[in-house]
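Q: Given only this backbone (287 positions), what sequence would you predict?
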């Protein structure tokens, strides 16, 4: 029988809400719990009390249970955050009420939002981080929740997931040597707390798309912006949407209304600074 490290310490719990999904994280290992609290702190909600993730550390390997059932066993400690974050993302997308979820970054100013729909590896998280750093509000870096009735967006301010391919762009956001973050962070993905990009940066609930930009990183390419037709915009949104079953026969109508609600562009870039400048310029033009 493996002895759990840290089991003699008092249990600490973090209560969180990811849109309609409430969850609690419990961990008796004080240092790992401190790191989990740092990463998931932007979702903290003291009233949340539904699903429970419990983490036990067995000499450097963890077991994670969800509502008392083993969800994953023998996972490395640096992979604990990745597992919980991935599961929370998936659960938030299917939690009521029904919403259109766009695989998109989102930033805002007041009640005006920029929607950045794109496939994985397109650079949307890097662009979202850059735009938040430039002063815009943070809505999400990969799961944008759109109300099918009034098209309002509810922020999902999860930690930024910066993959290995984009980490060189943000050296200051990497885990510092000798810290808990370094000990409990996997090299393939940094989960960067929102406040480390900019404090008090979460966008306003109820904002609506004012600009749609589909980014695509292409190494060595110039920064190019191309207007999208209504049909092209609807296709891009449809290709980067989920939770469609929950909306039933309202899917196409909702996608069509979002596509018509704002001008849309395709953005190809290799220089993040130039891409950020183009987005800020276009946003200023439409506001």
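A: Predicted residues:
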């Amino acid at each position: 029988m493996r002895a759990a490290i840290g089991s003699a310490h008092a249990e600490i719990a973090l209560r969180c809400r990811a849109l309609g999904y409430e969850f609690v994280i419990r961990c008796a290992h004080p240092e790992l719990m401190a790191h989990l609290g740092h990463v998931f702190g932007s979702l903290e909600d003291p009233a949340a009390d539904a699903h429970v993730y419990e983490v036990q550390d067995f000499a450097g390997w963890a077991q994670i249970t969800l509502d008392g059932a083993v969800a994953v066993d023998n996972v490395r400690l640096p992979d604990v955050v990745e597992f919980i974050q991935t599961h929370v993302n998936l659960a938030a997308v299917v939690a009521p009420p029904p919403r259109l979820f766009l695989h998109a970054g989102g930033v805002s100013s007041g009640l005006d939002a920029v929607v950045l729909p794109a496939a994985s590896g397109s650079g949307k998280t890097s662009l979202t981080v850059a735009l938040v750093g430039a002063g815009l509000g943070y809505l999400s870096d990969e799961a944008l929740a759109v109300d099918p009735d009034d098209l309002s967006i509810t922020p999902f301010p999860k930690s930024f997931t910066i993959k290995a391919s984009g980490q060189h762009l943000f050296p200051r956001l990497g885990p510092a040597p000798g810290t808990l973050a370094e000990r409990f962070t996997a090299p393939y993905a940094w989960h960067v707390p929102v406040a480390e990009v900019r404090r008090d940066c979460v966008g306003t609930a109820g904002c609506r798309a004012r600009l749609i930009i589909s980014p695509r990183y292409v190494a060595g390419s110039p920064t190019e912006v191309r207007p999208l037709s209504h049909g092209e915009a609807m296709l891009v949104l449809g290709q980067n949407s989920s939770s469609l079953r929950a909306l039933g026969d309202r899917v196409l109508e909702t996608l069509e209304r979002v596509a018509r609600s704002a001008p849309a562009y395709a953005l190809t870039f290799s220089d993040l600074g130039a891409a950020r400048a183009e987005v800020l310029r276009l946003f200023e033009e439409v506001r």
